[in-house]
Design goal:
The protein has 72 residues and is mainly α. It has one domain. Helices cover 85% and strands 0% of the residues. It is built from three helices and no strands. Helix 1 runs antiparallel to helix 3. The longest helix has 36 residues, at 2-37.
């Protein structure tokens, strides 16, 4: 009984770690793709010019990505 429970917890923990790594890589690639496709400097727009609309758009992009990966 304890062995089965331990295996189940270990398997679930492995799935969570794999999803977290996959999410981190997907966020990095999404950020790079968005930065490449967008004609303006995204970091400069958000940090220096305080473009809240662009920051909300980036946040919604990452939240949507988190939702999709979470449903896997």
């Amino acid at each position: 009984m304890f062995k089965d429970l331990f295996q189940t917890y270990l398997l679930n923990f492995t799935y969570v770690i794999l999803k977290a790594v996959f999410f981190a890589v997907a966020c990095f690639l999404t950020w790079r793709l968005f930065d490449w496709l967008e004609k303006l400097d995204v970091r400069k727009e958000i940090a220096e010019k305080h473009n809240v609309g662009l920051a909300i758009m980036i946040a919604s992009l990452f939240l949507g990505l988190a939702y999709v990966i979470g449903q896997m």
